[in-house]
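Ticket 4471: requesting a sanity check on a complex prediction with 4'-deoxy-4'-aminopyridoxal-5'-phosphate. Repro inputs:
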Amino acid sequence: AHIPKRTKASFSSSSSSSKALNEVIDLDHGDPTMYEKYWQQMGEKTTVVIPGWKFISYFSDVKKLCWFLEPDFENAVIRLHKLVGNAVTEDRHIVVGTGSTQLFQAVLYAVSPPNASEPMNVVSAAPFYSSYPLITDFLKSGLYKWAGDARKFKKDKPYVELVTSPNNPDGLSREAVVNQNQGILIHDLAYYWPQYTPISSPANYDIMLFTVSKSTGHAGTRLGWALVKDKEIAKKMTEFIVLSTIGVSKESQLRAAKILQVLSDTHEYNGNFKESEPFFDYSYNLMARRWKQLRNAVSKSKLFSLPEFSHGKCAFSSRTFASQPAFAWLKCEGEIEDCESFLRDHKIITRSGKHFGESSKYVRISVLPRDEIFDQFTERLCSINSL
Ligand code: PMP
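Returned structure tokens:
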């Protein structure tokens, strides 16, 4: 999401630690390559073979409201939510999308009144996910328009509020902030998984968005799903996807179904999976190590600070822990006004706070790259601190 230009240097290979001090480290986007190693260790267990005659049809299940949703994928999604306990799936329609990026657009289309005299306002509390304003406005729709920071929204007009919890970029748990009753809430729960934050209870909202990108790490599969209470909204979301892409790749759904099934298996079965570390244990431990490493590097400095998170008990893992988000919302302290360019001078590519509706004293840094890159990054951060 929000894929920016690549610097040439970020493609060159590296291994030695002298290079670690010189090479461009690109932590701009949240590319979840951290998960590669786990799935590599699973070997053939997640391999999917698709014969040439399969998936010729546009249709998956014509009796279903979302007729291009593969039953295997739907079942795998429901099973995973029941295992983790992070969302209510009963009395919900599931709509599959090409990433939750497509589903976000489908919701905007579905909830905007078709004949209103002016576009519906779309808001989210700053700092908000930088793609929301771009996606909302790029086609200059007559149905909806970006209206900025939800905390500043005072118009007595219909609105859509995006509630991202845990939030991208700052990792905080959130609730709706606009204090009016004519709004529609969209809950983007891309990061409501137990490797990032304690699961307090099953989310039970009207419109909830999830994605494989940040749960299993399969961003390239481009699959997301929406849990939608209202039948008419689910129908219109389906209509949006039909009009834009006539459905969602079945190959992707089959592969994602397999990955999600195996993920659940690593927690629920012994048998074949006796030797495999359960996915959410592995990913939780990895995130815990990374945040420790990062906080260590930051604590040595007077240049930077990170948000603090309160502890909570996770109903899924029974662990009590503080959030360890997919992104670090780093603040440059003191005189540094433009944190992004300060870090760029040290060959660390990040995304400025200004893209998130915040000050440029902040940057967002991905905590999800491969081990080697993350190690180089924290090493580099220490070296900046000691200047
Ligand atoms: N919502 C949020 C809050 C995200 O951070 C992202 C990914 N960066 C998305 C949605 C989009 O995810 P997808 O890859 O499923 O389109």
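Notes from triage: Confidence is low (pLDDT under 50) at residues 6-16. Leaving this open until the requester confirms.
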